[in-house]
Amino acid sequence: MHPIPLSAMNPGPMTLGGNRTWLVTGRRALLVDAGVGEPRHVEALRHALRDAGAALDTIVITHGHSDHISGAAAIQGEWPDADVAKYAWPEVDRLYPVIVGPLADLQTIDAGDDELVVIHTPGHSPDHICLWHEASRTLFGGDLLIAGGTVVIPASRGGRLSDYLRSLERVLALNPAVVLPAHGADVERPADLIRGNLAHRARRELQVVEALSRGPATPPMLVAAIYDPLPETLQRLAWESVLAHLLKLVEEGRATVDGDRYSLTP
What we know:
It is built from eight helices and 13 strands. The protein is an alpha/beta fold and 266 residues long.
């Protein structure tokens, strides 16, 4: 399997150089993620399919964030016979009527001349999936991992840190040789990155607990206590990260919340 990266042409503070969608050519060509409908992305997809002598059969969406799914209508408009599939997230899915049907964990999907397995990896979003090619130990990672950094867990929009940590552990057990993410460079040493991410989250949790030990606090108060001064564009991301940790502590009975103030459980 030799997937072709196609830029979604949407660079920005949250998308870095822009999303990467992945085309698997062959008997049943499959596109991983749909980008945002940028005409240059659609044109690049057209050229790649033509060069491979392939017709687009399936578009698989790794999760329902707009930079991954909003281009599905434009792509299906060009290839109306292509199915669009993703793991269910009803409140998001109803916004995108092009979706044909939900995917299931461990479902097998035809991809080119081979098969991929759906791995449900919630946390970044409740519907997040990866696609696993066992023969080459290649994982299409969506937003599960990003080379050289950590992924935002948007707790105010369906993200859940406890799920994300379990998803990392699940992927670590697969022992992938490479992860092809939706943002940034290929992850060539996934196990090292995953262990580093797990350690980072553990350190951040200790910081949150230590800050709460000084008294009840709101997420913005904790951001100010834990992080160095941040530009405005990063403050929201730090707030989401702190909130994700707080909600995990509440789930575990280690913290309580009153209004917007969180306290350690006595």
